[in-house]
């Protein structure tokens, strides 16, 4: 017979067993993670990483696009990074980006299934959607709607001009005193997309809409933080009740609810098949595909698409204009030359029109140089490979995350002389005419290239010329603000004050 056991010993041996099981589970997880971190055979070389977190720590220590350009000078234009068990390659310089996004456009058109994107949009919507039927249907609808309700209509140019007047009048209320232009530019720019998506604009006093844009834009900043990269590598971090990922999820839920209500409101009096804006057109598509079980049009994907279009259109164009204003105050001689061209071609009172753009090469050159130099989306949006492939002799497996370092393209010495100098004349020929440059790709390349490029170009030209036609821009007391960008998926200037004095 077995001797009766001491209950204290049984409890402690039970605890020991539990600890042992826990230690074995942790060990198994660590081994699995270390195996995941091994470079696949034939994969491009890259900087050595730390156990478990790979190269994530390096992305938090320096501006990621600058770090990546530096690493490309050591490991080559195509090198690899380990984002904590997520294999990624980074494309640097124009040739490498073109080789992948253009020459192998289909294979490089996917988006990575990162836990963050899965959690936020379930890989649906448009901007983050996987390359397949969902993306094709949503992109086609967005392109057609942007043409129908946006730049395809002559009257749309008047809508931008009307918005410019609200914008300039709001600036006038400061009477040359210092103020931060950020909110006014954000409101003016987002209203252009709002016309297309909702068929209405929001007043500059609408604090609810502004709050939605603010927290959405905070998410763009958070999405590039090292702690969110950590969440992508170790999604179980999501159960922790604190951290940047929690702020990001809270903001995303608030934005979702706001857009849900707004969509309900603007579609209230909808007449089927007589769309007034993007939301109506989307609901028509849902009706048409009602009996198709494979259809990707859904209420949820409508909310994701609307959110993506608003933020993709607002965050980028706003930041280009904020940098443009900053550089005009920084270089008064360049500002003066733009104003000279405006006075000559448009005159002091007439509203600027798009047809005048081709007669204004210097202004065009300045806007192009701002886009090149400031790199609004320095790493574009992450891509992924949809199949196994080979590039420059390297084997890249299906599902690899692909980072396009657009900043390195705009500072590629093979294509740009003295790239670190702000020099609009690089876009002019000997006769002062505007010249296009092949390695100028702020809107990226290939199948996923920016679908708002045409709209953004219209907005930038009309807002910028209207602003400089009416005002002279300078820093208060000549104090130059910090020029280092604020980090995020987009690069924006640090907050700065400007004086806009009537000319
Ligand atoms: C100066 C302003 C803008 C810049 C610099 C810019 C830049 C970019 C870049 C770099 C991408 C990534 C492309 C890729 O994945 O390779 C992108 C994608 C995108 N942009 Fe823009 N963008 C601007 C304005 C706009 C506007 C005004 C809209 C619409 C209102 C817009 C909508 C989108 C969408 C929907 C995508 C995702 C396309 C897809 O996944 O198929 N963008 N943009």
UniProtKB/TrEMBL annotation:
User: InterPro entries, from UniProt?
Assistant: Cyt_P450, Cyt_P450_CS, Cyt_P450_E_grp-I, Cyt_P450_sf, Cytochrome_P450_fam2
Q: How does it assemble?
A: Homodimer.
Q: Where is the signal peptide?
A: 1-28
GO CC aspect terms: endoplasmic reticulum membrane
- Protein name (record): Vitamin D 25-hydroxylase
Q: Name one GO molecular function term.
A: iron ion binding
Species assigned in the record:
Patagioenas fasciata monilis
Taxonomic lineage of the native organism: Eukaryota, Metazoa, Chordata, Craniata, Vertebrata
Q: What is its main location?
A: endoplasmic reticulum
């Amino acid at each position: 017979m077995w001797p009766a056991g001491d209950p204290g010993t049984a409890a402690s041996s039970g605890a020991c067993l539990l600890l042992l099981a826990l230690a074995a589970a942790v060990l198994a997880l660590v081994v699995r993670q270390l195996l995941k971190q091994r470079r696949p055979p034939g994969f491009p070389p890259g900087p050595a990483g730390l156990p478990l977190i790979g190269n994530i720590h390096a992305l938090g220590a320096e501006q990621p696009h600058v770090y990546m350009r530096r690493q490309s000078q050591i490991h080559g234009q195509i090198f690899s990074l380990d984002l904590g068990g997520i294999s990624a390659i980074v494309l640097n310089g124009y040739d490498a980006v073109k080789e992948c996004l253009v020459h192998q456009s289909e294979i490089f058109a996917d988006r990575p299934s990162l836990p963050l994107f899965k959690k936020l949009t379930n890989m649906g919507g448009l901007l983050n959607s996987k390359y397949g039927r969902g993306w094709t249907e949503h992109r086609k609808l967005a392109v057609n709607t942007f043409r129908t309700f946006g730049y395809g209509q002559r009257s749309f140019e008047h809508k931008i001009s009307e918005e410019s007047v609200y914008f300039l009048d709001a600036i006038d209320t400061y009477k040359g005193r210092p103020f931060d232009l950020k909110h006014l530019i954000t409101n003016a720019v987002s209203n252009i997309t709002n016309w297309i998506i909702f068929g209405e604009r929001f007043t500059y006093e609408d604090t609810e809409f502004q709050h939605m844009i603010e927290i959405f834009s905070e998410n763009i900043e958070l999405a590039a933080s090292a702690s969110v990269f950590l969440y992508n590598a170790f999604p179980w971090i999501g159960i922790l009740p604190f951290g940047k990922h929690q702020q990001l999820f809270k903001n995303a839920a608030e934005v979702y609810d706001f857009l849900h209500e707004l969509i309900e409101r603007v579609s209230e009096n909808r007449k089927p098949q007589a769309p007034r804006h993007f939301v109506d057109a989307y609901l028509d598509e849902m009706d048409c595909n009602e009996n198709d079980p494979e259809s990707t049009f859904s209420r949820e994907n409508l909310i994701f698409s609307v959110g993506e279009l608003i933020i993709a259109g607002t965050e980028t164009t706003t930041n280009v204009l904020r940098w443009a204003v900053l550089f005009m105050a920084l270089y008064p001689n360049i500002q003066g030359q733009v104003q000279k061209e405006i006075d000559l071609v448009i005159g002091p009172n007439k509203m600027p029109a798009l047809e005048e753009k081709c007669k204004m090469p210097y202004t065009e050159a300045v806007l192009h140089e701002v886009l090149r130099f400031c790199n609004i989306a320095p790493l574009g949006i992450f891509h992924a490979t949809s199949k196994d492939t080979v590039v420059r002799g390297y084997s890249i497996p299906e599902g690899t995350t692909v980072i396009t370092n657009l900043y390195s393209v705009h500072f590629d010495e093979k294509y740009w002389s003295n790239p670190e100098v702000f020099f609009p004349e690089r876009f002019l020929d000997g006769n002062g005419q505007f010249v296009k440059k092949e390695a100028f790709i702020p809107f990226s390349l290939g199948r996923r290239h920016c679908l708002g490029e045409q709209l953004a170009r219209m907005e930038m030209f009309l807002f910028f010329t209207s602003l400089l036609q009416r005002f002279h821009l300078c820093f208060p007391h000549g104090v130059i603000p910090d020029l280092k960008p604020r980090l995020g998926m987009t690069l924006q200037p640090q907050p700065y004050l400007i004086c806009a004095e009537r000319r």
